[in-house]
Amino acid sequence: MPNPDLDARQLESLRSALEKRRGELELLLRSGTDASAPVTLDQQSVGRVSRIDAIQQQQMARASQQQARQTLRRVELALGRMADGDYGYCQHCGETIAYARLEAQPFASLCVDCQQNSETR
Ligand SMILES: [Zn+2]
Description:
Helix content is 67%, strand content 0%. It is mainly alpha-helical and 121 residues long. The protein has a domain at 8-86. The protein is elongated, with a radius of gyration of 20 Å. The protein binds zinc ion (ZN). The site of zinc ion has 8 residues, from helix 4.
């Protein structure tokens, strides 16, 4: 049963927000595939410092890709819950998640209380 606090219009707007986000993340992950390629700079021509620079930039690109992949996973899970009709519930305590919170983060899977608990624990 879908979250009774959400009306059809709210649910629809959250769904389109999730789908938009999924599209953006997929695009980001596709366009950044070369971040996993090995660093192949010629050490003699670019020098050691810029080689380290390149490695650091690549590590940053990898980290942001990893984050994008995790977010994409959460977005897909949220869309799956939506399809199953159990979207909008806290995965920890089972309480409904407020629309304001879902609007800010449509892939949220925890209510504010549980989120805070998991962060402070
Ligand atoms: Zn909760």
